[in-house]
Amino acid sequence: MSRLILSAPVLDAPDPHALADFYRRLLGWTVVQREPDWVKLRPPGGGTGLSFQTEPLYKAPTWPAAEGAQLQMVHLDFEVEDLDAAAKHAEAVGGVLADFQPDDDVRVFLDPVGRPFCLFVREPEAPVE
Prior knowledge:
4-stranded mixed beta sheet; 129 residues; 2 helices; alpha/beta; 17% helix
């Protein structure tokens, strides 16, 4: 089998350029590809990036999920060193703290198109058997 490498999750948005700019400011990543309906970001030094494509029928998911409402298909988790500092930065670049916060050690934000993303501090991981 050929090796598979995750290049970038692709997020739909009515305006992919505006959403990519939000994540560029949030993460400090670089735009490596820009087309009319597509933008791709990469972190410094390479690695898995994020891409954004035009979806004119995009509907923001409901957070938390509710019966009969638009459900989220995916959300992004970002590991941070300082949860409070990262939360302030997320708000400064346009993230909105979600009303519902399920855990004390995670902050759920909504990006400019209403998609949830989480900030968390890594806990030590034990091997799972």
